[in-house]
Structure formats: structure tokens, C-alpha cells
Amino acid sequence: MQALHQEILPPSGVEYAITLKLTPSTLVEASTPSTSTPHDQSSRGTLYNVVVARANILRVFEVREDPAPILPQLEDERQRRADVRRGTEAVEGEVEMDGQGEGFVNMGSFTGPRGSGQPPTIARFHFVREHRLHGTVTGLESVRIMSSYEDRLDRLLVSFKDAKIALLEWSAAVHDLITVSIHTYERAPQLLSLDTTLFRSELRTDPASRCAALSLPKDALAILPFYQSQADLDVMEQDYRARDVPYSPSFVLDLAASVDQHIKNVVDFVFLPGFNNPTVAVLFQPQQTWTGRLKEFKDTMSLYIFTLDLVTRTYPAITKVDGLPYDCLSLIPCSSALGGVVILSSNAVIHVDQATRRVALPVNGWLPRVSDMPTLPTPVGMRELRLEGARMAFVEERTLFVVLVDGVIIPFEFVVDGKMVSRLVVGTALAQTASPTIVQKAHGEHLFIGSMVGPSVLLRTASVEEPVTDADDPTASGPAAVVDAGNAMDLDDDDDIYGTSSPDPLPSASAAPSAKTRTVIHLSLCDSLPAYGPISDLTFALTKNGDRFVPELVTATGSGSLGGFTLFQRDLPTRTKRKLHAIGGARGLWSLPVRTAVKVNGVPYDRPANPFYSENDSLILGTDVIPSPGFSRFGTRTPKGDITITTRVQGVTVGAAPFFQGTAILHVLSNAIRVLEPDGTERQIIKDMEGNNQRPKIKYCSICDPFVFILREDDTIGLFIGEPERGKIRRKDMSPMGEKTSRYIAGSFFTDSAGIFKTRVNENANGDAQPATSTLQAAMTAGQRTQWLMLCRPQGVVEIWTLPKLTLAFSTTAIASLQSVLVDSFDPPALSLPQDPPRKPQELDIEQILISPIGETEPWPYLLVFLRCGQLAIYQALPAEPSSEPIPPTRTSMLAVKFAKTFSRAFEIQHLEEQETSTLAEHRRVSRQLIPFVTSPAPDKTLSGVFLTGENPSWIVQTDKASVKVIPSGHAVVHAFTATSLWDWKGDFLLYSDEGPTLLEWMPDVDLNMDIPSRHIPRGRSYTNIVFEPTSCLMVAASLMYAQFSSYDEEGNEMWALDASNVSYPTSECSALELFSPDFVALDGYEFATNEFVNSLACVPLETLSTESGHKDFIAVGTTINRGEDLAIKGATYVFEIVEVVPDPTTDIKRSFKLRLRCRDEAKGPVTAVCGTDGYLVSSMGQKIFVRAFDLDERLVGVAFLDVGVYVTTLRALKNLLIVGDAVKSVWFVAFQEDPYKLAVLAKDPQSICVTAADFFFADEQLSIVTGDEEGAIRMYEYDPQSPESSNGQKLLCRTEFHGQSEYRSSATIARRMKGEDMVAPQAKLICGHPDGSLTALVPVDEATFKRLHLLQGQLTRNVQHTAGLNPRAFRIVRNDHVSKPLSYGILDGRLLTSFEELPLTRQSEITRQIGTERITMLHDLNELGGPW
């Protein structure tokens, strides 16, 4: 049996991050000329880049200084603060969650310096690029090489799990990262017998970029030196002749053999700044110990600082410090002025300088109990801090921020006496973010805190010099830091957290010479990267979008206070507001804002700012083909909200738009162009005639005030221009474009509001060069907006012409094959004369071409191309560098623009017979158009996008922090679409689908940052399990909390009690069951004991006498009862029933339900898995599994049991068949029989594998068992008693092993029904949720399709350049010492196969020709297997 491994969602969150100047936009000076465009100002505000990674996804962002939004809540907050009684407002350190559940506490938004003349700005993330890598990222660093001194840009170093380092740089030509080199150490002796679960590699770089180091197993470092000057090259030339690479040969440094024999068990290492040679500090533990052996071995950590001489390969020692606490966790280097390193341990923050002097500040009462190291006294009154899982970073030279595991930010101040650190001072909690993974000081005054379980935040840590008054205590016990409450929110004097005062080294000119000042750090929130964190469990539920039921994937995500539920839907969730059958619109819908022109002294006064200007639409136009010859209706809204038809016109409308700045309507019919008054009466009509002969019908038009473009069925075009003085239109001369009979297959106007499209005059041109704008152009457009005409000729040439004077500015032929980058070819206007016989449409013809802004706060111009074969390509418009090639004199001007492809997908479409020309055939014809829209789904949010109509209706949108997404609308077909604000809401859409004309809107709070739409339900706690109960359509979830734990002896006496105020009890996990309605309102719950937590939760059908069918769904729960390390744990099995009760009359709930406990059965061991089979309950207890009947709805009666492995992790049932997954003994295949009751082992895997999940997988009368282990390996087993390898059926045969990158512990099997096929039983599709937040699927593939795709996979592996030079085939291979050849055949790599759609068409044809198939066939196969579910 074969399958396809498909990635539905990439990993969520940030595990590694680095800030650097990677893209050229970060080099533009901050000063902007007065003539700059709005886009120039935004791009000049790019401060730096942030590159983040999690598992296999690498994302690049720009941090820009955007204008601060004027938020209405600022005034509301000011009023709220005025209403709060003094002394009751929130203070720093209080745990106060925000409404969205992002966990930011007492943190304002920074909006620029107060009192400055510059407009307020705020730093924001803006998405640039992302890559799905064929490897697992283990580190990110920035480095500068010799070429960095020429382009002033940093390079990116990425390390991978299989001991590889890739050097990447930004290429402006392709607008993407390119690989400079790849360095692999997987064949080093240290990795030959590597157990990957026990080692975590770290990547570090020297602050001066002289080398990089990657930690290897067995206490070794892989050193990669970089050239920094010509002198470095000269020194290495005698041994290394390659002068064109930025690095010298790397080598592996064995620390114990080459540096010091005592260096063993390395915990962390860093490079120190301020040294002439690279200097490394290594934290290690020569003698390992643990808490139970502290009487024998205590203070076993050591610090060793040595220098790397990269030429002579010598490593002189600088400092060695012994006697550090055994629980030291990490290192961070101090600045060269402060010197030394800071060590973070579980109970203290320790500073060690080069002279071996140690200054340690304990943060709780445990340090004196576990260490004999001398420390500073514990601060009086400070709450106990736990530093396990904490991260730290310097925000100033002497100020350290430590972010605890719960996200609380604690400041530490280093007090210096001379050149030595004399003491450390800790302050109170400033704010709270998500649990940190990485904390890094960014360029300037920013601090980035990355998290794997929630949003990652960008903070501003501004240092402000404030005078010291007499009332301030210079010996205060906290650093000077304060949470900035944001712009227009004045801070009171007592809101600051004052600390040690220091004289201002550079007093301002206005300050008195004797005035004392101190540096106060103002902390404020700038922006965040959304993330939902790990997926603990998942289930499918039934939800309602308005009145329509749709399936929804409900996942338990997040951790701690950021926990909750994340809901995913395949299509963009919308709800219907009303049906509008009166307007029709099967051939087109338009919603138009029109108004009456205001005249002053007979001259139109059409400035948009006049008080009579209407922002909302006032007219709707719908058109139909039936009855012949077509019908168009104009309608307006009635006071009741219905549509009333005001005007009816015979003929099919091709297009309509407001004209003359909204004072008229331009109406294009299939045989005429009309100018209408705002009330729909006709002002002017131009019939599309040639002499007395009727021209072919108009099939497409583009209207961009004051220009009109029409395209006829014979591929000829027409241009018209409006005359505002007369209020009429006239034909425009098209002679510069070639012959009058020239043929075109597509075209459109577009308006550039971002300032991207700029022309450069060709000095060598034959004629007089004119700029793109003129008096008319400037009069018709505001600011720097320019208008352009884009045309596509039949041979695939796309041209961009200036307006109003038609001058060719851009030409390219690369778009015909959808190349990755489109640049100007500088060709003259192409010839496209009519052919005899007439040219027939081709499959690769461009059917629609459009340039439209797509985005959120700063919409960006994108080029969208839709081919007749169904291929959609999206290109981003970018400024182009000046060409080094001479420009032909035939071109008077050139457009300094290029287009980089960011998205490509092939849709399945069907074409009707071209010969059918009847009215019925025209009515059945599906119209595929790209229609721009602007919507405001929320008052503070505006999105610009494009809608694709046809049989694959899709929304094309983009947010600031994500790439362009193409999201299905969920309709079978959409014939017409328009955004409308006729009902006074800018979030409405009017479309004609298979359900007729409908007014709809997006569901609220939909997040479009993911690959599929999502919605987050914050609950303030994490959930480990969730199930859907189909009878009542309710959900039951098990929440996870922590309670204090204490051990007791057999007589009930407490074995240890608190003996100090700065120590506390340990905590133990505890759980509670919660019953939720479909809209996640908690209805009921059940609390377990404080030392009992849920392992497994399932909805099982059991036999009962209370229903006619004899079966009913119950909720089964398996728990663990923790009794401490001295007593064996126990467990219990619970059976709950969901019953309906009388609702509370004081609430709006119409139906109410409760959880009723039916049975509790205590066990001698933990109940780790439960499931149901044939009306019986199957559960595990320790090394046994039991089958029990539910007797009289009140007790469980055992009927069968089986001794299995060591620790059961998974139980799955299919009819009377069971899969048992074990943490040691792999997987067992078991059958249950009732007469007599018996559990029989059919087969099992003889290998020792830790199975985390196991599922049945079936299709086409074939059955397999799919398992996943803790390494992320996916295995497919077959039960084949006829095979000699199975030992008469006793062994399960492992047919395929596939590395899925990360383990999964939650899965759901859903039915996959093929279109047009009558199957007895549907195929199984497996949906898996991973702890890194990714969502994957396993899809069955038939034999013929698998062979084709497997050949294609091999071609893509060998013939396509992969990011970072990684090998996709090697990445998916699972190491197995029991077979001679990897068992990789059987599961296809969906991530690799999706790259086929992104290739240019010529490359696709070339690859498929080599394997003896066609491009269309491969795209059809991928489409059949695609889709989330």
C-alpha cells in the first residue's frame, strides 16, 4: 500500500531567531527627500531584518518604522484612566491578560518620542519571504564576509540537525535567499554512533565574524573560519588556493584532546567580544551529578575560557573557574566594557570575569541548600523565582533582562565598582509575554522575544535620561526600568520603577552641570508574530457558519496561560446575510458609489473632500444572459434593506464603474459603451461599429477613470478617454501600439498608488522622451498615483504602456512560460497581426492578467496571471536595478520594475465546446475573472485582495506577517462577484453562486496568517485532550493545571514542610473535564483530585439499556494518580454520560447539558489509553489491556485481558481488531472475539521502537498499520500470513519507513471519497497534529499514480536546486540497522512534489518528458491528492 505525506500547516512559533541587515532595503538612509513617494518613505523606514525558524520553516521579515495608527481606544483608555480611583490601577508585575489572550501585561505601544517634530512611528513586522526546508533547523546566526564590505549586507548562517551549516545571502536579482555554500560534518567520527535524542547542537559565531562554531557530540566543535581581509587570504594562500570562496577549510576541534582534558559534558559555549583572536567560553561538567547525589558531588560545573588561533591551530587558556553550581543552564557574554560572562542557573544569576571573580545573586532560598559557592544575600521581600526554562539578554551594557518560563520579564542591574562588578540588583516584574525560546537584543533599542507556544513579540527598550530629585533614593534596590504606557497616555511619577542612579556621562546642554541624572529604560510593545503553539490533541466537529453546517478541525493548542483552542476550516468561513434574487447577476455584478456632481460657477467641483461625497455604494448592477439578448438591472436599497429595481436595460453588461470621479457611470455592453447619469439615465452612447457594420461582441473591458479598454471576441481592442469638461468620452488614438488590426488576448489598466512604477528616460532614444505623467494625468490622479495599460499579445508578449501618451515602457516574453523573475527585455512593440485562418485558443494562452494591490496596512502591487489551462501565477512587483546593457534607441523610456513569482497553482477546469454559440451554452459558460476588492472585516482592519470566480472560486489575500494566500470560498461555482457597502458595512460581498445572488460577509475573528483560515479561542489554560460527542454535538476537553504537591508517609504525616519564605512546594499536574457548546461556552465540568491528571479521553459507544438501539455514546477517561517518587503511581477509569437538563432561565441558553459520572474504576497502574470496540470498553493498565462491559450503566465488568509491552501509548479499534502501541515493544495487532471472550495476538513487530501513535490505514480493500515514533519516523506495516518473512503471520512486516520530521501523538482518521467514483467503502485519510504546531496528512495513492509521482519525485530531487543545498531524499531516510537498504519506497514526499507547481512551464515539460509522461497528467495527480481534507 502506498501513500502521500502532505504538510497541511507548517510548524507554529519561533524556536530560533536572528536580527541582521540582510536585504538592501535596510541600507536606505533615513532621510527622505520631499519629492519621495509614499512607498519610498515606507521602504526608507526599514530598520533591519528578523529571520525566524521553527523545525523546517524559515521566514524573513522586515522591521519598518510605520506611521503610528490613530486608534480610537486611546481616547477611551484616557477616559478609563480618568475614571479609575487613584491607587487601584494595575501596577507592574500584575498578571493581567489582554482580551485576545496573547498574554501581554501592562505593556503599552510605543509610538515615537514625545514632543518631537516628526510624526509618531511604530516598528512593525512585514513579511518578505519564507522557505519550507528539507531539514530541521538547529541554529541561526549572522556573519559578515569580505563581500559584506562591498554591499554592506550581512550573511545568514543556518545549522541543521544532521550536522550541516549553510551559508546564505540575499540576491536582489531573484528577490530571495540563495545558497553560497553548504558544510557538512555528518561523516565526522563524533557522529558515527550518534543517538540524536540525547544531543542538541548549538551554532555560535564570533562577534567579529572571524569564524563560526557548531557543537558536535562527544564534546567537539566544528569550526568554520571566514576571511575578513586580504591579509587573511595571503596567510592562507600557501595552503588554500581557492581565492573565490569567503571561508577557509573548516576543521573539527576536540575540546578534551586539543584544549583541556577535563572538558567533558559541555552544557553551553559562547564567543566573547573585544579580543584580538576568537575567544570561546565553555560551560561544562566534568563530574555529572543530580539532586540525589549532592552529598557526594556538589558544585560540579566549570567554566573554561580559551583563545582560538585559526592559523597555528593552538588554543591558549585564559581563565578556568571551578566550583559552579551543578544546575547551571546557559551562558551569555557581557560587553567588552563590562567583561566576562553571565551564567544562568536554576537558582541564581552569576557573573564571572576574566580574573575568575564570581558575583552570584540568588533568586530563591534553594541555592544555599544545593551549593557551597559564596553569594550575595538574597534580596529581602523578593518573591521566589524559578529560572528553569528562562532566557536572558542584555538590553543595556549593565542591564540584563531575564524572561522566566511563564513569560515574566525581570530586570537585573550590574553595579560596577571601578572596573569590577561589585553586586547585582534585581527589580520587580515588568511585564509578561509568552514562554520564551529565544531572547535577543535587536538593532537599535529593540528586544525580540521568540516563543514556541505563543506569539513572539518585539519590544522597545528606550533609554531615557531622567533627572534625580531629592525624593529619589539612589540606593534603591531595583534597576531603573518602567513600562511605557504608550502615546497619549501620561505616566504618573509613581509609575516608574526607580533604581540605582548614575551620573549622566553626556549631560545635555540645557541641563545644569551639577544635575544628577539616571538612565531609565522604557519598555513598550511594538508588534508581535502570531502563533498558536503545540497541538496537544485534535478532533473534527460540526459547526455553523450562519445557517450552513461545515466541518471544523478543533485543536487544543498553546501552553499555560496562552492555552486554548484553535479552529481550522478548509474554506474561508463566511455567513449569508440575505438572498437577493431580484437583482439577478448570473453574468456579472457591480456595486457602484456614485454621487451628484457639485458645480461652482458652472465648473465641476469634484474634489473628494466636498461634503456631498458619499463613501458607501449607492447602486447595484446585475446582468444575465437569459432571456435573450440579455438583460441588465440597476437597483438601489430600500429603507427596509431590500433591493428595488430602478432601471432595466436590454443587453448583457460586460463592465461598469464610476466615472468622472464618481459623478457618472461608465456602462459597457456587448455592443456599446454608455455614459450614464447617477440615476441611470443615459448621457452618451457610443455603439461599437465599424462604419455601418457591427463589430464582434465585446467580451472584456477594463475601466480606470478616465480611460476605458475593451477587448472583442475577434481579439481586437478599443481605447476610449473621458473629457471631464464635457462629461463625455471619445475614442483614443492607438497608432503607437501598431496596426489597427493587431490582436490581443488580454489586457487591463492599473493604478500605482505605492510609487513602484517609475520610468527612466532613454537618453539614446530617437525621439523626444516624455515622462509618464502629463497635465491631464496629474489632474485626474491624486498625489503620486500613476496609471498604466498592460496588454498581452497572442504570442505571449506582455507590454506595459504609459498613459495618457501611449509609450512602451516594459516588455517581456518570459511570462508565457511563467518564469520565476520577469524583467524588461527592451524589445520594441511586438507585431500581432491577424492570422488566416483565425488563430484558435491555446491551452497556455493568458486568459486573465491583472495588476492589483494586495495587502493589509501597505497594499503592494501584485501581477496575477491566469492561463486558459487553469494555471494561476502571482508575481510581486519590485523596483529593478538599472540595466548594464545598452537600451535600444527604439525605446524612449523604460520601466524600472521587475516581477518575482511568489505563488503558483494549477486548478482543474473544464472548457465547453468552442462551437457552441447558443444562448443556453452562453448561460452555462463559466466566467473566470480576477476581481479586485477592498474590505474591512473589522473597524480597525482593512484588506486589499483579489477574488477568482469560476469553478474554483478563491480569495487571494495577504496580511502583513504572511505570504499571499489563495483560500477556497467553499462554493461549487461563482459566476459573479463584487464587494459592496450598499448596506453601510464595508465588509459585505455580493456574489452569484450555485445558490443564486447572495449577500455575505466573513465570519468574525478569522486569522488569515496560516495556510488555512483559523480562529483562536483563548481559555487561559492548556488542554491535553479533546473529543467531539456526535449525539449532542458538544465537545469535552481535559484541561491541565498545576497544584502544589506534598508527600506523605503511610501514617499520613507530611514528609517535608516549608521552612523558609523564599522556597515553595513542588507542583504536580492536575486535570479537569470541561463540557463545551459548539460556540465554546462552558456548560459543565468535573474536577479530579489535585494529584490526578488525564492521560486519555475518548468517546466510545457502549451497550446500554437506556436506548432503543442498545448502544449509546459515553465519555471514557483514563487517568494517572501521582503519589510521589517513593510510592507507585495508580490510575482510574471513568465513564461519563452527557445528559440534557433544564436550562437556567436567567441565561440565554436554550438547551443545557451536564456531565454525569456513571462509573469510576480504580486501577493499580496508570490508565494510559482507552477506546471502544463492539460495545465494550478497552483500556490499558500498566502492562495489561482489559476489555470490559458496561453493566447496568453503573459498573465495568472485565471479560478479557492481555499482557502486552511495558507502557501502552495507543489503542485503536476497527470492528473487532485492535492496535496496541507501546513505548518499548513497538506495535501489536490484536483481535477480540466474544464467544468465548478472548484477546488473540495476530502479529507484532519484533523490533524495539517507541511508538507514540498508531492508526489503521486502508484503501481499495487493502489494510495497513501506520505508526509514528518519538524520532518522527512514520512506518507502514502489513499483516500478511502468506509471506515467508512473517513467520506464519506472527510478525508484522514493515514495508515503509519515512522520516516525518517530528513526532505526533494525536491523529484523526477521516473518510476520503473520490469524485465520480462509486466506492463500497471510502478511503482513509490520516490527519496528524504535532507538538511543533504542524499539521500533516497521509493520503492513500493508487499504484499507477504512485509510480508516476515517484519518478517525478526522483527528478525533482536531482534536477531542482533546493534551499540551503539540502538533500530531500536523505532527509526522509530513516536509519535502520536491521535492513541493508532503506525502506523509503512507499510514501511520497508531498513537500517536495508541491515544488513542481512552482517551476516554470518549460521546466515542468522538460522534467515530465524525461520520465515519459505529460505535465497536465502530473498536475492532475497532485490536484486529486491535494487539499487539507
What does it look like?
With 1429 residues, the protein is mostly beta strands. Helix content is 7%, strand content 44%. The strands form 24 sheets. Strands 90-91-92-1-93 form a 5-stranded mixed β-sheet. The protein has a 5-stranded mixed β-sheet with strand order 26-27-28-30-29, with no helix packed on it. Strands 56-61-59-58-57 form a 5-stranded antiparallel β-sheet. Strand 84 and strand 85 form a beta hairpin. The longest helix has 17 residues, at 1343-1359. The chain is globular, with a radius of gyration of 35 Å.
Keywords for this entry:
five-stranded mixed beta sheet, 93 strands, mainly beta, 1429 residues
Task: Provide a count of the helices.
Answer: 14
**Quaternary form:** single chain
Query: Mean pLDDT, rounded to whole units?
Result: 86
Structural class: mainly beta
Q: Total number of β-strand segments? A: 93
Quick structural overview:
With 1429 residues, this protein is mainly beta. The longest helix has 17 residues, at 1343-1359.
Question: Could you outline the blueprint of secondary structure elements for this entry?
Answer:
Blueprint: E1 2-9, E2 16-20, H1 38-44, E3 46-54, E4 57-67, H2 72-83, E5 121-132, E6 137-143, H3 148-151, E7 155-160, E8 164-171, E9 176-184, E10 203-205, E11 211-216, E12 220-225, H4 230-236, E13 251-254, H5 255-259, E14 266-272, E15 279-284, E16 301-307, E17 317-324, E18 328-333, E19 341-345, E20 348-352, E21 358-362, H6 367-370, E22 391-396, E23 399-403, E24 409-417, E25 420-426, E26 438-441, E27 446-450, E28 456-467, E29 481-483, E30 517-529, E31 535-545, E32 548-557, E33 564-568, E34 574-579, E35 588-592, E36 599-600, E37 603-604, E38 619-624, E39 631-637, E40 643-650, E41 653-659, E42 664-669, E43 672-676, E44 682-687, E45 689-690, E46 693-694, E47 698-704, E48 707-712, E49 717-723, E50 728-731, E51 746-752, E52 759-761, H7 775-780, E53 786-792, E54 798-802, E55 808-812, E56 821-822, E57 846-854, E58 860-867, E59 871-879, E60 893-895, E61 897-906, H8 919-924, E62 930-938, E63 941-948, E64 954-957, E65 965-968, E66 974-980, E67 988-993, E68 996-1002, E69 1014-1018, E70 1022-1029, E71 1034-1044, E72 1067-1076, ...
Parallel strand pairs: 1-93, 29-30
Antiparallel strand pairs: 1-92, 2-3, 3-4, 4-5, 6-7, 7-8, 8-9, 10-11, 11-12, 12-13, 14-15, 15-16, 16-17, 18-19, 19-20, 20-21, 22-23, 23-24, 24-25, 26-27, 27-28, 28-30, 31-32, 32-33, 33-69, 34-68, 35-38, 36-37, 38-39, 39-40, 41-42, 42-43, 43-44, 45-46, 47-48, 48-49, 49-50, 51-53, 52-60, 53-54, ...
